[in-house]
């Protein structure tokens, strides 16, 4: 195709080649997958897909909801659109004024009540997260408001809702800690534990609070504790309407994935409106009239971003294409938009003993698993041309070209190396992808909606993290690949352990695995369903990155973005932690590095692979968006 039309986007040629794959399972699995891929090239929406939210309350609703199918002839329409039109989203002229200029990560930002200055929380270099106030034009006059805290919201009277004693939560721009309220210049007053995000109601007394309860992400009104929505995935960007009669927020199906949709609901939890599902969505704010919310989306995290609007009546519309990855943080009374421009890059390192190599691979995804002998690793691709479920790849440690396995979010390599467990979406399901000869196959889970999985060493059984359809509380199951019903092996409320992006940490003999209970403490659970055992001395601040070859110890490091990263062996029976680290990872430039690296270690402790993300942000005030 490029030989006939040299200016054709390479991503489009990849899409067409995939449509022409000889094996059906290597093609796009649905028209919606194809729509996502085409949208990632054009930056436009080709299908009016909707989320079929229930008419009743969101509380107790399914954590994912099916998408309507795209129209027939989508491929021809999409290719024709790219070849002949290739137009950006139409938008009115806009002007952008930069409000910050330091290297680091900005978590939250809000206009002050007078609209003339900005409150924001940021982590600059090695410093802790702190709250600042700065005039919109005059960065040199920035003042420190709170030296160790995260901003959540600003009331109409200028009172701040902040997080104290915060730590990193999962892999997003969300922290977790103690909710407090404060006036500028005064000491914060603590109110509620385990809070993730919050927003003020207009009365300046009540708050819309997002917190973690029994391993579920719950949205509620505080004080009063009235729950509006909860999910085993996660919720983000809760915002109260200007009149205080509605709330808006984002719902995400998978805890570590920001794909999802926007919901507008009343204070009983009843859905008023919902957007289509997007592969990446970040940032949400009400426009001044309260008739619409504005939010940021992309058809892939690393592609073009767009600002969209969703009205309370359910109409979704594009507002403007954005010049970069920009998260809408707030909208002033005069319509100015506060944008958090984000540059996200990922670096990958493969090491053996004292030798390490920077991998020359795409930064548009992440490392998911490492084979027991360290010869192969899994990673996904989420950039242009990827389908709605991303693309799974098998990398080789000898530097050979990676093998494209097909659509899916890869989770784990089988013990014999012949298969890869992967997660697909809409609806959520597990699939087996062959690494050699063979055809992809769905894994029957008899009504269980999967969140993650891992292999047992016999290669014929897997451990699945998931929940029953229509239920919120997750648990762990053992499933035979030859059929039958999944067998629950943990109580409800137990989520997968501290593995990477959905992979469950299963011991070498397969008789036990690591999971987290409702108190966030890591426990050893057993494949036969017998009584779990706590790991002495380990808490939610510890991150388990693999089992040791003795089947009794685990490799542990500190969670919550603690650097340098030191990996030590810990005996799961006694809790004894070795003084000498097996592995130490340092980072000389901490600007934008806010998370512990995604790390995998082989059972012998000799080979490892990790990825480190860097989030660099700048605030801009945009005028002319409408």
Main sheet makeup: 7 strands, antiparallel
For the biggest β-sheet, the strand order reads: 6-7-8-9-10-11-12
Question: pLDDT under 50 segments (min length 5)?
Answer: 39-91
Helix amount, in percent? under 10%
Using the coordinates shown, work out and report the CATH topology of the domain at 95-344 and 617-623. Methylamine Dehydrogenase, Chain H
Highest CATH level, the class of the domain at 95-344 and 617-623 = Mainly Beta
CATH superfamily of the domain at 95-344 and 617-623: YVTN repeat-like/Quinoprotein amine dehydrogenase
Give the amount of beta strand, in percent: over 45%
CATH architecture descriptor name of the domain at 95-344 and 617-623: 7 Propeller
- Number of separate helices: 3
On the 0 to 100 scale, the average pLDDT is: 83
Number of strands: 45
Shape descriptor reads globular
- How large, in whole angstroms, is the Cα Rg? 24 Å
First-residue to last-residue Cα separation: 39 Å
Structural class: mainly beta
